[in-house]
UniProtKB/TrEMBL annotation:
Modified residues (4-aspartylphosphate): 56
Organism: Sedimentibacter acidaminivorans
Keyword check for Nucleotide-binding: no
Protein name as annotated: DNA-binding response OmpR family regulator
Lineage: Bacteria, Bacillati, Bacillota, Tissierellia, Sedimentibacter
Residue ranges the UniProt entry marks as DNA-binding: 133-232
Boundaries of every OmpR/PhoB-type domain copy: 133-232
Keywords (A to Z) from UniProt: DNA-binding, Phosphoprotein, Transcription, Transcription regulation
Ranges for domain Response regulatory: 7-120
SUPFAM superfamilies per the UniProt record, alphabetical: C-terminal effector domain of the bipartite response regulators, CheY-like
Listed GO MF terms: DNA binding
Length: 235
């Protein structure tokens, strides 16, 4: 059974890659548009209003990083980075500028289709940050990703930049179980040379600000033996 016809924009300067990805996506029922450089990518984005973008980072004219940043200024649609870059800090950089997923070359087009399907499904379920403003439990907790603001019971609360990075990363993937090491890389950077338990202190402070009862949290949940995850309520 084929998928509902979502529109996918594939951006890469290698025609063979574009052709292969396009064929696999169309075979899965998606409507595919293509671009081979940064200028064409932005033009296509404005023209077709896609539901998801597959974006190579190494592009002529305008880099994939800049395209991602420009898209994020006006849209929360999911973006999958497609690149030959394999270093962890480069991947983290991609996530920090707004990517939702990251796949490195060479890759399996079948795997890419699975990731597209999964990401679009999460978006349709309302658990991916397609919208700048989100709320949980009838407005008990409200977050504006673009403005970097948080409200608790209608009152704006002050989070440190590190606390906001942790919270925004966790709500982006509410089903994901984050290890302490992953949260450290997201919030403190890959070059951080302290103890991994440092993240526990940030989690404790975050809970004291957003939870009704920090000793019995409902948003920032502990995953025994792993780390933490976001316990989302009704959006």
């Amino acid at each position: 059974m084929k998928e509902i016809c979502n529109k996918i924009l594939v951006v890469d300067d290698e025609p063979k890659i574009v052709d292969a990805v396009k064929a696999y996506l169309e075979n899965s029922g998606y409507i595919v548009f293509t671009a081979f450089d940064g200028v064409e990518a932005l033009n296509q984005f404005e023209k077709v209003n896609p539901d998801l973008v597959i974006l190579d980072l190494m592009l002529p004219k305008i880099s994939g990083e800049e395209i991602c940043q420009r898209i994020r200024k006006q849209s929360r649609i999911p973006i999958i980075m497609l690149t030959a870059k394999v270093l962890l800090d480069e991947k983290i950089s991609g996530f920090n500028i707004g990517a939702d997923d990251y796949i490195t070359k060479p890759f399996s087009p079948r795997e890419l289709v699975v990731r597209v399907r999964s990401l679009l499904r999460r978006c349709s379920d309302g658990i991916s940050p397609l919208y700048s403003k989100m709320s949980w439990n009838n407005g008990n907790l409200e977050i504006d990703i673009d403005e970097m603001t948080v409200w608790k019971s209608g009152i704006q609360i002050n989070l440190t930049p590190t606390e906001f990075k942790i919270l925004s990363s966790m709500i982006k993937y509410p089903k994901k179980k984050f290890t302490r090491e992953e949260l450290i890389e997201i919030a403190l950077g890959i070059d951080y040379d302290g103890f991994d338990r440092t993240i526990d202190s940030h989690i404790k402070n975050l809970r004291s600000k957003i939870e009704d009862d920090s000793s019995n949290p409902t948003y920032i949940l502990t995953v025994r033996g792993t780390g933490y995850k976001f316990g989302s309520g009704e959006i």
